[in-house]
């Protein structure tokens, strides 16, 4: 066993829209190409790079061989951080051990976790292997590395990256349109073989009430207004090192005329059965991965809010499987945009208050809502939780069903329960 994989990683990797925009500005030119220190690119190298393929080994003259050291603070974390090739978090040449394979086009199976049926690269996999050392398991991710869909013109069906398209997108920010939507099965960025996400208009309900909480303790998760002053998100978003801390700022309706609205999180209530340690080490407590948050301004009175429904309790498991789901969240790879799915489905209902789904979700989507629609009304039936490793098969994506928190909702809205109140003994039994 390497370790359990869960979307709590989103806490480490989630980026605020501001930070993402900053990253985009910092992107180097001709990103992903061999080091500019190397010989000038041949047209063949350039065309291979544009197709997402690394230069052939040996294509770079020895005089231009990549060299350097591991003095960067992000050295040896398994991810190449060299500017022009990787994330750009390190000075050029100071992340040598993580970068040299990618620069020289050496994709191999040298990791000890190679050929175990699970992708172990950072980002796309468990992170147990260095990039480019788990080739057979990670498959065709070469053209996905260091690219995203953060451009304003992403997901519009036209490649807008410079060189290939009209250049209205920065390098490497219009991935789906420039490299296609097919995705390998079994990677953590899980699109079930195909990325079907679209951008949502956050000036329009219900997308206007799906926002993001930037936590004071670090990290960010998606959260949704379900009452004038109440949000629903995932418990793992407010839990770290055995402590619960929900303090943070909720921002929503980014595209609203007049700008986004924001409020402070001032209280929370999560499952009495929540246990971070057990959640992180087993699959036993996924049904408790929910948290109600209270904010200090009635944004729901201004913007409206969605409803909540126990879909399995009210419709039964069979009809629930047929329901069209609407999901949206602040995925790590779509920049400042709210991205999501129109018409994905529950694929299995579990008795522990969870369900598996086929909605395209990734890091940053933690806490994001799965909704059903009735006319103009939307009802949250679950929130995004984690994914389960499934060697030999695609990852299993787990959402926490609303049935778990519905019994507490009225009491939390009314202020009868919360972080400063004693725990109720059970559903519907708040303390006197
Ligand atoms: Ca690194
Ligand atoms: Ca592997
Ligand atoms: Ca585009
Ligand atoms: Ca898909």
TrEMBL record:
Domain Peptidase S1, chain residue ranges per copy: 191-414
GO molecular function: serine-type endopeptidase activity
Residues in the signal sequence: 1-21
One family name in Pfam for this protein: Trypsin
PROSITE patterns registered for this protein in UniProt: TRYPSIN_DOM (PS50240), TRYPSIN_HIS (PS00134), TRYPSIN_SER (PS00135)
Keywords: Hydrolase, Protease, Serine protease, Signal
Name of the protein: Peptidase S1 domain-containing protein
């Amino acid at each position: 066993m390497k370790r359990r994989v869960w979307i709590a990683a989103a806490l480490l990797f989630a980026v605020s829209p501001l930070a993402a925009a900053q990253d985009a500005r910092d992107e180097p030119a001709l990103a992903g190409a061999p080091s500019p220190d190397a010989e000038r690119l041949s047209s063949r190298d350039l065309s291979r790079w544009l197709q997402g393929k690394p230069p052939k080994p040996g294509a770079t003259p020895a005089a231009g061989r990549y060299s350097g050291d591991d003095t960067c603070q992000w050295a040896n974390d398994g991810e190449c951080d060299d500017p022009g090739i990787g994330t750009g978090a390190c000075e050029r040449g100071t992340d040598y051990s993580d970068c040299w394979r990618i620069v020289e086009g050496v994709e191999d199976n040298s990791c000890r976790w190679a050929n175990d049926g699970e992708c172990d690269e950072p980002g796309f996999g468990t992170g147990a292997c260095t990039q480019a050392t788990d080739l057979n398991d990670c498959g065709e991710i070469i053209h996905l590395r260091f690219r995203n869909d953060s451009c304003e013109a992403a997901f519009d069906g036209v490649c807008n990256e410079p060189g290939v398209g009209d250049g209205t997108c920065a390098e490497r920010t219009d991935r789906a349109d420039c490299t296609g939507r097919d995705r390998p099965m079994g990677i953590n960025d899980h699109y079930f073989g195909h990325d079907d996400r679209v951008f949502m208009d956050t000036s329009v309900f219900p997308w206007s009430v799906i926002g993001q909480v930037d936590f004071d303790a670090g990290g960010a998760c998606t959260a949704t207004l379900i009452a004038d002053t109440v949000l629903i998100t995932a418990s793992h978003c407010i839990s770290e090192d055995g402590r619960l801390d929900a303090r943070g700022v909720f921002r929503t309706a980014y595209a609203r005329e007049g700008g986004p609205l924001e409020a402070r999180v001032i209280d929370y209530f999560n499952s009495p059965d929540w246990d971070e340690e057990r959640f992180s080490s087993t699959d036993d407590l996924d049904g408790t991965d929910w948290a109600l948050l209270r904010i200090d301004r009635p944004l729901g009175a201004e913007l409206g809010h969605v409803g909540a429904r126990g879909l399995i309790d009210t419709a039964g498991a069979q009809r629930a499987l047929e329901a069209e789901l609407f999901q949206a969240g602040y995925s790590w790879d779509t920049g400042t945009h709210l991205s999501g799915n129109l018409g994905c489905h529950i694929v299995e209902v579990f008795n522990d208050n969870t369900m598996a789904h086929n909605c395209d979700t990734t890091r940053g989507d933690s806490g994001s809502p799965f909704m059903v629609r009735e006319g103009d009304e939307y009802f949250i039936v679950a929130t995004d939780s984690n994914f389960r490793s499934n060697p030999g098969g695609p990852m299993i994506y787990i959402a926490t069903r609303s049935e778990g928190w519905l019994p507490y909702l009225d009491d939390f809205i009314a202020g009868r329960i919360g972080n400063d109140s004693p725990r109720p003994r059970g559903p519907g039994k708040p303390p006197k």
